[in-house]
């Protein structure tokens, strides 16, 4: 018996899922992330490994890791982070967007405060990364995988998209090398699922993993959620209802439009056209606990549209379907009834999702036929019904909604399944 193991490092927690060759889940573990620091990621990785029963762990064939997209960090030759990571939602790079506009092609997806390239350039020019020695710039998933395989610096073309890597020509464009200081080593990029190396000996011994356990290139958290779903036909989509709202529509055409925060990830011969809104479950959690969310949702009539028109953000700034770093949250008026308030929030999030899919199709993506749901909000049947009414297509419950399952499938593909 062999198993493949996927790790998902999301915004609020980390999870691991081990599957057998038939794709059946044979072990799972999860832990909250108290902070987004390399130390917390490393401790979570090791904790999750320990939670996988030894009977499974000792037969793991391959491991893959996903992380939050465009969370980046710089490390030295030993792989030690030299400054706190810059998280996916960090907006400090807004300060260098004019500089980026001057070097990147017009309307390029990296011209956004949330892109990895903007963060890297901001960090270099503000002195956040001291540059007297060579530094490696990695994404979160690359760095966590490095802990397991020990090779600096290797990344995948999903995480590298927001760094400016071109997934069509499979190389970094020349203008990017002109922009990045010579002391910064960009990761070598491979396809997600490519075997990078076998497990480091000390880690393999410590966790009783087989010495030939392969560590394969990972992906982003929302692409992992897409992989977990059955969506494989152009027109099928997955919405990740996690802390943020992420849309991925499988398309025959590649579409990119920084004006609306639209970009496309390579997905075999197809494209995952999409965008990520800052609105989402994090705002729901600001007002309600998960149990309360479930109880209140039961009392909502999903067939009647809420007249409340919110824009549920934690703080100003939106990426998609409007790319506006100043967009203000709108959460008023709050009715006395919590049921009505939640109805307004879920309806408003469904409207943002609907506008997002509309925007993707208007921009040339393959027309939407069906939406699968992933993430913490996927279990909410009331919300699914509201979303189906707003989207005008079938919203289907996915048998597997966890990103870690998609990452386990990626590990299996890397191992040859
Ligand atoms: N019943 C529910 N209805 C709607 N949203 C929910 C429900 N239960 C949990 N959530 C939301 O799911 C989110 C967590 O989902 P998860 O996929 O773990 O997110 P992430 O990894 O992005 O932090 C929380 O923000 C929470 O508000
Ligand atoms: O808000 C997020 C945190 O990661 C989204 O997952 C992310 O922005 C989506 O990015 P990608 O399309 O590159 O997976």
TrEMBL record:
GO function term, MF aspect, one: ATP binding
GO cellular component, one term: cytosol
EC number: 2.7.1.47
Catalytic activity: D-ribulose + ATP = D-ribulose 5-phosphate + ADP + H(+)
Entry keywords, A to Z: ATP-binding, Kinase, Nucleotide-binding, Transferase
Pfam family, one: FGGY_C
Superkingdom, taxonomy of origin: Bacteria
Single Gene Ontology BP annotation: xylulose metabolic process
Carbohydrate kinase FGGY C-terminal domain residues: 239-413
Domain annotation Carbohydrate kinase FGGY N-terminal: ranges: 5-227
Keyword hit for Phosphoprotein: no
Cofactor: a divalent metal cation
PANTHER family in the record: D-RIBULOSE KINASE, SUGAR KINASE
Family of this protein: Belongs to the FGGY kinase family.
Protein name in UniProt: D-ribulose kinase
Annotated organism of origin: Oxynema aestuarii AP17
